[in-house]
Amino acid sequence: AQSVTQLGSHVSVSEGALVLLRCNYSSSVPPYLFWYVQYPNQGLQLLLKYTTGATLVKGINGFEAEFKKSETSFHLTKPSAHMSDAAEYFCAVSTTSGGSYIPTFGRGTSLIVHP
Amino acid sequence: NAGVTQTPKFQVLKTGQSMTLQCAQDMNHNSMYWYRQDPGMGLRLIYYSASEGTTDKGEVPNGYNVSRLNKREFSLRLESAAPSQTSVYFCASSGPIQGYRSYEQYFGPGTRLTVT
Fold this sequence. Notes:
heterodimer, A: mainly beta, five-stranded antiparallel sheet, 11 strands, B: mainly beta, seven-stranded mixed sheet, four-stranded antiparallel sheet, 0% helix
């Protein structure tokens, strides 16, 4: 079984401040890890992913995340928030089931950016 | 490429009515998924199809049925709608990209369903 915990349903930052969205997971096998972003009234789109290799992964729009196996974490960061980063962010963990990768999503964190 | 498309975008049903949500993808993906999104609950998997001709239950399948019509299309049917099925429904697909294994999902824009 796998699960994802996103700490904080809402995170509020000022424009230009550091963004840190937390994600912890549990998985019985090596996981594939993802962050997705959802803008209002849209579907989800991939920000970044970790499958194998380098544990620090870079995504679109200046976001990055680091896979820390010992801490079972995959926190999302961005050095300087922009107003356009305001959105809902979802962390997901995926393992294989019968040839298909079935992800489990966290409950989401709403990022609020103040001017 | 259009990616993943869903119809309709909005729908209002009365309790007991039935409807089918349509989903199509043009990325030649093997796997397709249906989710529902409710406030504070994240995305919950209703059904998925690992490949053409197969379907499996997800976390919340009760009250729904699916059909994988062909490789491109995966429909979700509500036989007798209930207010508890008021939600936003997302279809997603995943599969190889240019011959390389890809693990991420591509999502449609969603269907906003209200059951009164």
